[in-house]
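Hello again,

I reread your note about wanting to compare the complex against the isolated chains. To keep things tidy I'm splitting this into two emails, and this first one only covers the full assembly. Below are the input lines as submitted, including protein chains and any nucleic acid or small-molecule components. They are followed by the predicted structure of everything together. The single-chain runs will come separately.
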Amino acid sequence: MTAPRLLVAAAVVLSFGALLVGSPVPGGEGHLDVARLALMVETGGDAMTPRELARQLRDRSTDVAVVDLRSQEAFDDFHLPRARRIPLEKLSGASFPDGTTVVVYAAGDEAAERAWRALQGMGYDRARVLRGGVGGWLQSVMAPVLPEDATPSEREAWPEIAELSRYFGGNPTRGSVTGLPFGAGDSPDSAVAAAIKDARRKGCGW
Amino acid sequence: MSAAAGARPYGSPYLAGFGVGMVLLLAFVVMGRGLGASGGYSSVVATGVAAVAPERAAANPAYAGYLGDGTVHPLKDWVVFELLGVTLGGLLSALVAGRFRVMVERGEGITDRRRLLNALGGGALMGLGAKVARGCTSGQALTGGALLSAGSWLFILAAFGAGYAAAPLFRRQWS
Amino acid sequence: MAASAPAAVLQVAAGVPPAPLYETGAFGHEASLVVALLLGTAFGWFLERGGLGSARKLVGQFYGTDFAVFKVLFTAVVTAMLGLFWLSRAGLVDPYLVYVPRTYVLPQLAGGLVFGVGLVLGGLCPGTSCVAASSGRLDGLALIAGMLLGVLAFDEMYPALAAFMDSTFAGALTLPAWTGLPVGAVVFGVTCVALAGFALAERLEAKP
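Full-complex prediction:
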C-alpha cells in the first residue's frame, strides 16, 4: 500500500469512527454548544460580578446556588454567604433544582471556568463564574473603596454599594488607596484584562 | 516544475499536506492555537509605523493590538517568529532538493517587470483582503478550516470562488 | 498543570487533559517563540516540498491544470481535524482551550473575495510568499512588499472601516453549532468532501 492510500484508509476509518462517536469529549457527556459558550465568554455572559451576586443574595433570591470549589481549610477560613463546598472532582455528582443559577467561585478564575464548562455540559446553562473569585468578593463587596478622584456617576452609585457592603458585614471606605484587604491577592481586574488581551493576540490569522 | 538544473521534482502533495496537517495539530496541542501568516505582516507594519510616526501609530486603534502596552516588543510575536521559521524551512527544503534559483516565475506572455508589478498589486489586494477577513489561507483556511469555524469555511469558498472568477483575466501572465 | 510525564498521566487519569501545553502552563512566552520558529520551519519545509512555493504551480489550481493547492490544503485540514478530534476524545487535549477564530460574516465574505482575486493575480499567499522568496523567487519578494502595503492601506483606513469590521459578529460559530449536527458527523462530512475532491482532482489531472 502506498503512503497516500494508507492515509486515505486511515482518514476513512477515523472519520467514520468520529461519526459513530459523535462527541469530541471523553464519555461524550452533554452536547456542548461551543459557539454559544464562546460567545457567552466573549460578551461576559458566563460571569457574574461579586456585586451582582451580593444583590441577589441580599434580595433572598431563591434560585441562586453558590458553590465554593476550594479546599476545606480555605472554606472554613472564609466563604461566601450561602456557599456550598463542592470540589471540582465531585461536581458531576451534584445536582441543583431546575432553573437555578449556579455561581461557582475559587481563588482565581481557572478552576471556576473548568467548573463552569462542566456545569454547562451537565445542562445547567444558567451557570456563572464569579468574576475575580474570592478576591473579587473581598475587594468589591467586603471592602469597596470610593477613590478621591471618583467621577460624578461613581459618587452617585456609592451609597448603594456602601449599604450592600455593610449588609454583609463589610467595611466600605473612602480614600486614594485601592489596597486589597485581607491579603486577597491579585487585583481581579488585571487578571481578567490580561486574559482578554491574551485571547486577542492569539486570534491570528490576523 | 522548477527550472533549476539537477532539481528534484516536487513531492506528493498529499504527503506534504499530511506534514502540514501534523504541524497544525502540534500547534493545537502545544500552543492551543493554529498557524497564521497575515498577522505577522500586521506586526511588521505596526512596528514600522510606530518607529516612523509614533503619535500616528498611538492614535490609530488598528495598530494598538499589535503594539501592545509596550512591555513586549511587537516583533516578539508568535506569528512573526513562525514566519521566520517558514522562510527558513522553505530555504532548507529548496536547497536540499536543488530547487533554489534566483528567478522570476511567470509565463511566456509577459515580461519580468510586468510580473513583478502584478505581484506587488496582487500582494496589496491580499494584504487588504486578509485584514478584512481577519486571516488568510494559513489562519482562516487551514486553522479555521480544521477547527470547523463557519466563517473560515465561508472565507475558503469566497477566496476560491473569486480566484476562479478572476483567473481568465490574468491568463496571459501564466501561460 | 503537568510539569512532568508522570504528573501528566495522573492528570489524564483524573479527567483533566494536560494539553494544550501552553494553556495549562507548561511553559511561557519566550519558550513559545522558539516553538513558533520550529513549527514554522516544518511548515515552510512541507509547503516547499509540495510545490506551493512556486507561483506557476499554485495558480494551476485556478486554471484546472494542477490541483496541488486543493490537495495540500484539504489533506492538512482533514489531518489536523481528525487528530484533534481523537486526541480530545482520548482525554489528552482540552479542545475548548484551543482558540477558534471568530466569525464575522460580511467581513470574511468580502475579505475572502478580495483575497481570492489577489491570490490569482499574485500567485502566492502570505505564507507561501515567504517560501518562494527564500527559494530565490523575486516575485515572492514583490508579493511580500505588496502585502505590507496592503496591510498599511487597511490600517490607515481603519477608522472608516471599523463599523463594517465589527458587523455581523457571530462568535466562535462552528459548523456543528450552526447546523445542529454532532461534531463527529461534521468531521465525517468534511472528510468525505475532501476525499471526493481528491478523486475528482486525480481524474481531471489525468486528462491531457
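For quick reference: Strands of chain A lie at 47-48, 64-68, 83-85, 101-105, 128-130, 145-147, 173-175.

B.
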